[in-house]
Amino acid sequence: MALLGKLGHTILSLFGMLFDLFGLLSKSITMSLNLFSINKFSIFWQLFIRQLYNTGLKATYINTVIAILIGVLMMSLTYSILGDNNRFIDYYAKLFVLVIIREIGPLISGIILIARSANAVTAELGYLKQHEQLEVLKSLKISPIFLLLLPVFYAFPLSLLLMFFYFDLVCIFSSWLLMSVLQSDSISLHDFLEIILDQISLNEVIISASKAFIAGLFIGLTCIYYGASVEPKFASISRSISTSTTSQLIILFTVNILLSVIAYR
Questions:
Q1: How confident is the model at residue 33 (pLDDT cuts 50, 70, 90)?
Q2: DSSP-assigned letters across all residues of the chain
Q3: Where are the domains of the chain?
Q4: Which of 31-45, 107-121, 124-138 is the least confident region?
Q5: Burial annotation 103-131 (CB, 10 A radius, 16+ → b, else e)
Q6: pLDDT, tens digit, for every residue of 192-249?
Q7: What does pTM read for this prediction?
Q8: Contact between 222 and 247 (Cβ < 8 Å)
Q9: Residue 10 in this model has a pLDDT that exceeds 60
Q10: Better pLDDT: 220 or 144
């Protein structure tokens, strides 16, 4: 009975969180109308660029390292199975699109976004909430939603999309580099890239963009939600970061798997 009670409480909490997330989504869309004001847009633009820089560009080094390792691993495993097959490049291109572009790339990029950027936003907002800085902003007639939520709302989906694209490119380059070492009659990088691009359909591009938009959007809203839920207690910020990370990972995997199942069934 106790287990069922805990399960019921968890399910109710999950639905409550989803309801609040859609409330934040509605507020973000409504607040976006303020961007038609030139003065407010200029303020937003500076905050957006700062958030995009911190979220996407600063994650380039870790994205590069992981993409190189994944590209090398992918080529190494494929070569160990197929060897010097005449159609090795064609097989590898199909496998690369299936494994890296469809599934691994979006998931790893999303995990990097959560670990490196979303947790930082949760901690920053939690600190402001715990020290009542949000109330100070309200007393100055400055909307915390416009100042803190809106830049995340737009920067996270765009950052995740750019991270997808960059991750795939680095994977392709590292794969080609290892192939050049393994095979004596390897092809040029341009030809290798062209063969892989031939395997990418418009459907792949739309699904990848959808994964970035939906997952990035709700990851951003979730870190804001838990940051704003911090209480004036010693361990409240760390607890919020932990719960936020768990929720974001569930959202990331759910969005990616559902879209893949719907699109590629």
A1: confident
A2: -HHHHHHHHHHHHHHHHHHHHHHHHHHHHHHGGGGGSHHHHHHHHHHHHHHHHHHTGGGHHHHHHHHHHHHHHHHHHHHHHH-S-TTHHHHHHHHHIIIIIIIIHHHHHHHHHIIIIIHHHHHHHHHHHHTTHHHHHHHTT--HIIIIIHHHHHHHHHHHHHHHHHHHHHHHHHHHHHHHHH-TTPPPHHHHHHHHHHT--HHHHHHHHHHHHHHHHHHHHHHHHHHHT--SSTTHHHHHHHHHHHHHHHHHHHHHHHHHHHHH-
A3: 39-264
A4: 124-138
A5: ebbbbbbbbbbbeebbbbbbbebbebbbe
A6: 888 888 888 888 888 888 999 999 999 999 988 888 888 877 778 888 888 889 889 9
A7: 0.87
A8: yes
A9: no
A10: 220
Read off the tokens for 151. Answer: 């830049």
Angle between helices 88-96 and 60-82 (to 10 degrees): 140
Q: In the numeric block, which tokens belong to residue 247?
A: 């929720």
**Average pLDDT of the residues in 147-161:** 89
Q: Could you tell me which residues come within 8 angstroms of residue 234 by beta carbon, excluding any fewer than 6 positions away?
A: none
Place of tokens 């038609």: 36
Listed in sequence order, the residues at least 6 apart from 150 whose beta carbon sits closer than 8 Å to its beta carbon are: 28, 31, 32, 44, 47, 48
